[in-house]
Write a structure and sequence with these properties.
Blueprint (H helix, E strand, L loop, with lengths): L1 E12 L2 E13 L4 E5 L6 H8 L7 E6 L2 E2 L5 H11 E4 L11 H11 L4 H14 L15 H13 L5 E5 L7 H16 L3 E5 L3 H4 L4 E6 L2 E4 L1
Parallel strand pairs: 3-8, 3-9, 6-7, 7-8
Antiparallel strand pairs: 1-2, 1-4, 4-5, 9-10
Helix pairs in contact: 3-4, 3-5
């Protein structure tokens, strides 16, 4: 499903070249549940952004679903993202001027799901995440935990092939966190590939692989 070969990212600074990721290579198979761990500044979120095609400034090779991401134009990468990827951001990234219902509807409209079908899918997601009463509220009217629930619901609503999650339980209290991780586990059991970044050892136990990053290098797997 995902293949990386000598993936690198760096910045030019006054002192020369500063590397964020160094020679990242490996494969993630369909149905894997991978956790990326490591200290702050290790490159975890950067790697996730590259996998989600949100960052195009890198070197090396990246294959997703047989497509050579490294050789695609930006517009083609966006289409690939819409087709296959669900992303849970650490800072939520909900659209401020859309209410909860409309935020959940967005990924379905990207995939040209008919309106009536969208209504049924969104209604089911609102119920599943226990946020029916919040559907007409805007992100600014929600707590951090509620915004995170909406962000996770938005990421999974279109049943993507791969879910990328950056600290998916970071803003949630323990029972909400368990609910999200149990949902991720059930989606993974149904065949969804999941890649999460987390500092939480309990969350890491839900997966079947752990990749440790340090100073941009893979130091253990």
């Amino acid at each position: 499903m995902i293949k990386l070969s000598n993936l690198e990212k760096s910045y030019r600074t006054g002192a020369g070249e500063t590397f964020v990721l160094r020679r990242i290579s490996g494969e993630i198979r369909k149905g894997d549940f991978v956790t990326i761990m490591g200290p702050s500044g290790a490159g975890k979120s950067t790697l996730l952004a590259i996998l989600g095609m949100l960052d195009g400034d890198w070197r090396g090779e990246y294959w997703l679903m047989g497509e050579p991401v490294h050789a695609l134009k930006p517009k083609q990468r966006i289409e690939l993202n819409k087709r296959y990827v669900g992303f849970v951001f650490q800072q939520y990234h909900l659209i401020d001027d859309l209410n909860v219902y409309e935020n959940l509807e967005i990924p379905l409209s990207y995939r040209n799901v008919p309106k009536k079908e969208r209504q049924a899918i969104v209604a089911d997601a609102l119920d599943r995440f226990q946020i029916v009463g919040k559907k007409d509220l805007f992100p600014s009217q929600l707590s951090g935990g509620q915004q995170q629930l909406v962000a996770v619901a938005r990421a999974v609503i279109a049943e993507p092939s791969v879910i990328l999650a950056d600290e998916p339980t970071g803003s949630l209290h323990s029972s909400q966190g368990r609910m999200i991780m149990d949902l991720m586990k059930s989606l993974n059991a149904e065949g969804t590939t999941i890649i999460q970044v987390t500092h939480n050892e309990e969350c890491a136990k839900y997966g079947n692989r752990v990749i440790q990053l340090k100073d941009g290098w893979i130091v253990d797997e």
